[in-house]
Amino acid sequence: MTRPSLDALMSPRAVAIVGASADPARIGGRPVDYYRRAGFAGALYPVNPNRTEIQGYTAYPSVADLPGRIDCALLAVAAPKLIESLEAVAAQGAQGAVIFTAGFAEMGAEGAALQHALATRARDLGVRLLGPNCLGMFHAAIGHCPTFSSALQNGMPLPGRVGLVTQSGAYGTHLVERARQRRIGVNYWVSTGNEADIGVAEVIDYLVTDSGTDVIGVYLEGVNHPDLLFAALERARQARKPVVLMKVGTSDAGAQAAASHTASLAAADDVFDAALREFGVVRCRTTDQLLDTIYAASHAPLPRGRKMGILTISGGAGVILADSAAHHGLSTPEMPPEAQARMLARNPLGAFANPLDVTANAVNDFTLVSDGLESMVRDGGYDMLASFFTSWPASKVLGPQLRAALKAAQPIYAHCPHALVITADDATCAAHEGDGLLVFADPDRAVAAMAALADLAEAFDRAPRAAPPPLPDGVPDIPATGLSEFAAKQLLSAAGVPVLPERLVQSADEAVTAAENIGLPVVMKLVSGDIPHKTEIGGVLLGLETPDAVRAGHAHLLQAAERHAPDARLDGVLVSPMAGTGQELIMGVRVDPVVGPVAMVGLGGIFAEVMQDVVLHRAPVTNDEARAMILRLRSAPLLQGARGHPVCDIAAAAAALSALSVLGAGQAAQIDSIEINPILIRPEGEGAVALDALIIPANPDAPA
Amino acid sequence: MTRPSLDALMSPRAVAIVGASADPARIGGRPVDYYRRAGFAGALYPVNPNRTEIQGYTAYPSVADLPGRIDCALLAVAAPKLIESLEAVAAQGAQGAVIFTAGFAEMGAEGAALQHALATRARDLGVRLLGPNCLGMFHAAIGHCPTFSSALQNGMPLPGRVGLVTQSGAYGTHLVERARQRRIGVNYWVSTGNEADIGVAEVIDYLVTDSGTDVIGVYLEGVNHPDLLFAALERARQARKPVVLMKVGTSDAGAQAAASHTASLAAADDVFDAALREFGVVRCRTTDQLLDTIYAASHAPLPRGRKMGILTISGGAGVILADSAAHHGLSTPEMPPEAQARMLARNPLGAFANPLDVTANAVNDFTLVSDGLESMVRDGGYDMLASFFTSWPASKVLGPQLRAALKAAQPIYAHCPHALVITADDATCAAHEGDGLLVFADPDRAVAAMAALADLAEAFDRAPRAAPPPLPDGVPDIPATGLSEFAAKQLLSAAGVPVLPERLVQSADEAVTAAENIGLPVVMKLVSGDIPHKTEIGGVLLGLETPDAVRAGHAHLLQAAERHAPDARLDGVLVSPMAGTGQELIMGVRVDPVVGPVAMVGLGGIFAEVMQDVVLHRAPVTNDEARAMILRLRSAPLLQGARGHPVCDIAAAAAALSALSVLGAGQAAQIDSIEINPILIRPEGEGAVALDALIIPANPDAPA
């Protein structure tokens, strides 16, 4: 059964407020006040059995008495009356309802049952539900305001093309207020509350297709339907609509289940972060970052690249902007020498490499500014501009001249974001914004916001993900009882991860025979599903060069097991060839409770953990994605020939990581995690080889 | 000869403006306008040969005609007339002069000579000089405004106890404007320009002793006199006056001289950063951070620790604040269970662990807020508080009730910084500030600012640095020609850095004899001052177990040298015992052109460089400081027994680092850098041993 779209909720022509109050300070009265002040163009029907008029509107004793059909209803009634009200408004045609009422799933099992009953009834009636336990929403352009948020107490939002969706009503209120102070026009705000029906993902989807929305801001506390969310985010990316997101809190669930290195390395928040990166979502840690990015994305075009040109009236401010560019991953190449010479001839006290310091001389000749900006775009080829004029725009004398100079050059740089760094009153700032400029007081925030625009542009230009390769035929299922290292490596080998030719032996004699067949020197290891970190108990012996050494080694390993893990079930001893030289990496795949299977790569040994140098990506990944993951490691230079180290076979490493990710994703239901630690990446052309493997099967008793 | 203090410049009773103009838009007129508007209480004497009155003040045709003695003069005259004017005002008693005029050292050698002549004459006349090429200064409390900065065009600074000193006049203007918008009262602003006489350090020193200054803000572009600066910063620390500093740009000079690992690791900016940390200076990367920290330090007491209590009306905002606390190194321990239970009994919908979510129920009972805050201090023992009320303070109904509740609890939390996270108009924010609260709109900025206060408190509570040990007697000077590895290690050994017993041999026979004396197995290495990174050419052989292996190894090394470095001067081959096991670190000391000798420690091998995990400190360092440096490495867990690794002898590592730093500092004139890479830190109690050493002597031809 297809459910109705959100149109009736988001853009209704007729709205009923059930439980409307004549007192604008009350929950049932505040929305009426907002509709009145916003000048809602549709029909508004307050419903109240005791009044014939409410805040200037004709009131009706019951929903059944309404004079016309409605699209949407606000149910400002107590919990026990909700279902009855829902039925009444559905009977009048409502396909959307907003419920502020609290006391549902947030209050435990009984509330959850009540919420389920409400959602089920709404579904049966064909009514889409916002809430319960939410602060409502608004669609400012049509004056539709079913909310009691105090965000509208100080006035309606500025006109604009930003849509906000927030799980928290209170923090949504804070953002709406801040957006107005920041001169950001918010057209939609939707607080989703308990998400009994409509969740964040569906609202994002609505805004992606909405012609009145250019930029989507999201505030998340938890992810209820990751698949829907990721699908919506990918649709936003393909529609080239920036999504700017703040997610608070970090899940402890993943960290608690940290049985393997992989699990403890891939903290749940990092996993989510990696997923967002796929869709080009700008994830912000702070409220200012969120608002700055929304502001920039809604006021400026996206840049074509990452080259920033800087124009300044003060050397110091130019250096600040250049420092910030480097910090935020933008480049500041120099102007062509001819262009520099031309400007220097006009202004010998200036500097025109980049930053272009036109000096306070610009006071006497504002064409230094307009010509400078023009040359930066035409000759410098910069993708974005930042210019510093401190308080000049606020000056009665200088302000208008500066503005005229900026406007004169504007057609030339119209395709570039251009941030002014100034201090001025709101009206002056707004005037410059009207001219197509971004306005910031803090130079670093200006640069950070433009860097976010560059990130968005790059994400939007990426092709959709290629399909990863399928799991090869014949890979056996992972048993719930776990696998020894030997069996784990056999499985990995079947899945396409290269391993060494190895023999599992049960006696010293067998070990000697195996070693002679493989060729000395050999490596010997204990094999037991019960001894996950065998190096730490002396369960690994390297470089055994003679049959006698192999024989003695076998005895040593059995003693180590007896001493450190007397209860472990031993599968035997593994005899392997020496692996050769190269750089060790750790690779893993684990099943995140929210995001699903996730691939991980890091520097090998204990460094990955201590240095927190790991890169994550949702599994499965293609070879190209795996390669990009490896190259994003801070330690990637170790694989690329840093300081005389050999260049390693990164293609082989990427192929192994992709194969591992395909295995993990294909058997996600069977595993908690698979970890290869280490995998040796040999010199270029010589391949990679997994030296150890640990498969932790899914725990069917673990909470989902 | 003692020079006059800055009193006459900073707090004069009588001021002459030479070159005063009747036009408030001109450089010589704007200061007169500012003095008038600021209501300067002293005598102001405009000097202008063509007028008897200027902007309401009696004007004088020449300095010689002034009716009384002056303390300070503003010389708004062209460069050629400056010395004559200086002599004239000195004759009238001036001990301070401000010079805006540009065209001096910033314009090359000729300008520098002019500047030197000016500074010399001022020194001879006993006049302290601010500038040239500066925007002047102000001392707001007395209305002293010898500046033409546009920062005062929109009004005088707010009353307050902040002093700002900026090398850039334009960025200083920006900061002064931003400070007013941020409701920060700036009493002094001094722009130092070319610093022909007065530099940033001396102004800081003045503000440290000034009774009207509580907080000092500094904007630096370069450091002209690091010793004076560091001394002033240490005096500020001991006076418990916060110094909040922004320094832009990074010197390329250090990086260009990156001949050794040490030099390339210790970029000059990191060195400066490490030095600032000694004095508890809060270094800010961005303008908002600078202003936020100044704001917090000038409005709130310093906390006694790092425990933050959070009170909120919204779960989400509480999580944001808790996330930020973790990000900025603050802790958020839970309330005692009894206190939680007590509050839960009153407010069953709330949560009272920490964050304390009093929920929107507080609307009905604001004692939930006041009692909550009181319990957080009394029962929770928090050192600082953050509370979130979004737009409530702006509400006509809720605002006054909330403010009353906050004030009611204020005596209890008066000793704690308490940041309100709200959105409200300026007047409302100012009212809360008047009640002793900090006000922020972005929760992360609130937490960051309070974390900076905690850093300040910790720095102020530190005892002054203990004297590092002296260089042991008998350490030879480092020759300008450089030293071989063998000789370098002998020198390090004399300085107190442990090394292995080693023999330098010249033949295979000598090598075998040495190996048998030392005890097999041994390590053998090429020794040549011309082969700095010998591992990369195969110049190091490990684990030679038999006399034959030693003999073959000797031949191998000579071949390697012949093949890879045929022109290298060989000192011989070093025969050493096996070093044993442990964790390798890199230690170094280098002479930074600005900061002087600097000690460095990092993870050994190529990891330090790739992972950028190094810690710096001005040399020499004590054992305790060296130990703290080592423990600040991100990789420190590798020394502390992470994942079954042995606990290493950190005391021995610290002693070696201290000894190295003492050597480097003691012979700073002789060296560019000394590097020990690696030094092996053995298991606890077994010491440390330098395995390789490289001393790069000072290059007398290098630019200073």
Summarize the structure.
Two copies of one chain form a homodimer. The first copy, chain A, has 704 residues and is of the alpha/beta class.
- SS element count, helices of chain A: 23
Quickly give the CATH architecture of the largest domain in chain A: 3-Layer(aba) Sandwich
- Report the average pLDDT across residues of chain A: 91
Low-pLDDT sequence parts of chain A = 251-266
Q: How many β-strand runs of chain A?
A: 28
Alpha-carbon distance between the two ends of chain A: 28 Å
CATH superfamily of the largest domain in chain A: Succinyl-CoA synthetase domains
Instruction: Report the CATH C-level class of the largest domain in chain A.
Output: Alpha Beta
Q: Given the helix and strand composition of chain A, which structural class is it?
A: alpha/beta
Radius of gyration over C-alpha positions of chain A, nearest whole angstrom: 32 Å
Write the layout of secondary structure elements.
The structure is a homodimer of 704-residue chains.
Chain A: H1 7-10, E1 14-18, H2 30-38, E2 43-47, E3 53-54, E4 57-58, E5 72-75, H3 82-91, E6 96-98, H4 109-125, E7 128-130, E8 137-139, E9 162-166, H5 169-181, E10 186-191, H6 200-209, E11 215-220, H7 226-238, E12 243-247, H8 252-256, H9 261-265, H10 268-278, E13 282-283, H11 287-299, E14 308-312, H12 315-327, H13 337-346, E15 356-357, H14 367-378, E16 384-390, H15 398-413, E17 418-422, H16 426-434, E18 438-440, H17 443-461, H18 485-495, E19 503-505, H19 508-518, E20 522-527, E21 540-544, H20 547-564, E22 572-577, E23 583-592, E24 596-603, H21 607-611, E25 614-618, H22 623-632, H23 650-666, E26 671-681, E27 688-690, E28 693-697
Parallel strand pairs in A: 1-2, 1-5, 5-6, 6-7, 9-10, 9-11, 11-12, 12-13, 14-15, 14-16, 16-17, 17-18
Antiparallel strand pairs in A: 3-4, 8-10, 19-22, 20-21, 20-22, 23-24, 23-26, 24-25, 26-27, 26-28
Helix pairs in contact in A: 3-4, 6-7, 11-17, 12-17, 14-15, 19-20, 22-23
